[in-house]
Write a structure and sequence with these properties.
It is a single chain. This protein is α/β, with parallel strands linked by helices. The chain has 15 helices and eleven strands. The chain has helices spanning about 25-30, 40-55, 55-80, 100-110, 120-135, 150-160, 170-175, 190-205, 225-235, 245-255, 255-260, 265-270, 280-290, 295-315, 335-350; strands at about 15-20, 35, 90, 115, 140-145, 165, 210-215, 220, 225, 235-245, 325-330. Helix 2 (about 40-55) packs antiparallel against helix 3. The longest helix is centred in the N-terminal third of the chain and has 24 residues, at about 55-80.
């Protein structure tokens, strides 16, 4: 570690955090609360990198220095002229090298108490990875399980509204956790961004209180749940939601109503199941979409695909399922979900008492 360089442990000591990486790097992930003031934009970084490899490092550094100087000057005029002399910014780039060093040097010359983060974003990333290994070990998870359409996420959110601690992985992943779980026109975060949000969420929880979480697979859409977390969840206390098929169909028709106005998108998503279902079944499902026969389609998807998949995956994944608490319902309306959530919380409270 270079002398006098601040580390990740010093983040709170600074008034503002400035990420000088490209917009593309910043969009993938960044230190929470940081603002993006790139000293090289996406195209400029490619330009300098190409010169470095194809011409010479000297030519690349000349062009790079000119571009960096122009960009820092612009940021100064547009964003920082109103900062007082006592202002303490923390500046970082990818590894704590030239990009953040250039801005730090200029800011210090002006008279600001600027710091250059030792190790840059890579140091932050190492911190996130280490925390995601360590933090899950401190929590006792109560796992909400049940077949697809059992309103597990809504029940989890209702439990949260009762003041209980919840870890809503699907909300963090911006995905509903199945082949039809993708949210139209709403992309998932990057894996790194997901892990940063997950680490912050875990760090804010109280280890002395239980944490309710939904039973998930290792992947939520395109994102992977960290291994230490999924292992800890799967050893947690299992709560099984046993909803009737009619209740599940009615819930899914409401919860996935955005598919009903975009049948083409639904048809494309179902194509993913071609390797798992017969041609006849796939053709029938596509026809049900054309006919807008949504109740029949949802019922068949549950009976022929989701329910068999659930039984195969859940029976051996959750050790806490050996003695599950079971909660049966035929009502997954909004009020029914609230009642079920209250019953689950009350039941566990009574067990402790």
């Amino acid at each position: 570690m270079k002398p006098n360089r601040p580390t990740v442990a010093d983040l709170a000591k600074y008034d503002e955090i400035i990420d000088v990486r490209t917009p593309a790097e910043f969009a993938e992930d960044h230190i929470p609360g940081a603002i993006n003031c790139p000293v090289l934009d996406n195209e400029q970084r490619i330009q300098v990198g190409t010169l470095y490899k194809q011409v010479s490092p000297f030519e690349a550094k000349k062009i790079g220095a000119a571009l960096v100087s122009e960009n820092i000057a612009r940021h100064l005029k547009e964003s920082f002229l109103d900062r007082p002399k006592s202002w303490k910014p923390l500046i970082y780039c990818w590894r704590g090298g030239d990009r953040s060093g250039s801005m730090t040097t200029i800011f210090k010359a002006i008279g600001w108490q600027a710091g250059q983060l030792d190790g840059g974003y890579k140091a932050w990333r190492s911190h996130v990875i280490a925390q995601l290994e360590e933090l899950p070990q401190h929590y006792h998870f109560i796992v909400i399980g049940g077949a697809t359409g059992s309103a597990k996420t809504r029940i989890l959110q209702a439990i949260g509204s009762l003041g209980e601690q919840v870890l809503d992985l699907e909300n963090l992943a911006n995905h509903k956790g199945s082949v039809l779980g993708v949210l139209p026109d709403s992309p998932q975060p990057s894996q790194k961004g997901f892990e940063t949000s997950l680490m912050l969420t875990l760090a804010a929880l109280d280890p002395a209180r239980p944490v309710y979480v939904e039973a998930e697979s290792r992947k939520i859409g395109n994102l992977h749940v960290p291994e230490a977390l999924i292992a800890r969840i799967r050893s947690g206390e299992f709560v099984a939601i046993e909803a009737t098929l009619d209740a599940r169909v009615a819930f899914l028709l409401k919860d996935y109503d955005y598919f009903l106005t975009r049948p083409e998108f639904l048809g494309q998503r179902l194509d993913v199941l071609r390797s798992l279902q017969s041609r006849e079944t796939m053709a029938r499902w596509q026809q049900l979409i054309l006919d807008a026969d949504w109740p029949t389609l949802v019922r068949e998807l549950l009976e022929l695909h989701y329910d068999p998949l659930y039984q195969r995956s859940q029976d051996h994944n959750y050790t806490g399922k050996q003695n599950p608490g079971c909660f049966s319902t035929d009502d997954l309306s909004e009020n029914g979900i609230k009642r079920l959530a209250a019953t689950i919380v009350q039941s566990r409270t009574a067990q402790i008492a």
